[in-house]
Design goal:
Elements (H helix, E strand, L loop, with lengths): L6 H7 L11 H14 L12 H12 L7 H5 L3 E3 L6 E12 L5 E11 L3 E3 L1 H12 L2 E2 L1 H16 L3 E10 H4 L10 E8 H4 L1 H12 L6
Amino acid sequence: MTLSISPDDIRKQAVITESKPPVSEAEMQQAVRTLLLGMGEDPDREGLRDTPKRVVKALKFLTSGYHQSLDELLNGAVFHENTNEMVLVRDIDLFSSCEHHILPILGRAHVAYIPNGKVIGLSKVARICEMYARRLQVQERLTHQIAEALQGLLKPQGVAVVVEATHMCMVMRGVQKPGSWTVTSSMKGAFADDARTRQEFMSLIRHTPAFH
């Protein structure tokens, strides 16, 4: 089944929440204190005294994508342009958090689209990746959300997204396999339908740029 998301649906997914948070910052800090106690630590010792405050601040930053909207992020940076050649932004650093263990996901995204009368500011491609990455995620959904956002915003001839990442929930715990990478992709329009277009994209993201 093919999923289709309209621009209005995308904006609703990322709307800025103006309502009061369900818990206060003090309650969040108390929860961190409880976790420290559960680990057998003393949250009142010097090294941990401010840890609850720091953890809450860090978590709010790492999940700030929940409180961003595409409208705010784009700030009008969609332009009419008569071009139909592939636009590729590759090696976009990604830092996300696994929703199962709240451990880091570290990797990179490669994003391409073929315009259909409209282009987007290049930095905004990276910003879109960043917005969705700064949420609790699974890599498959992150990849799909980036592709759906560009598809809905630009209605291009095609969109391709490849995300390569290593998951600390596999490296630091569980199977403990450092060096393992997960690769996910989402291909739409010309990239899904035309093998040559798809192969061109895959070749370009494997090619080492001159200034690498």
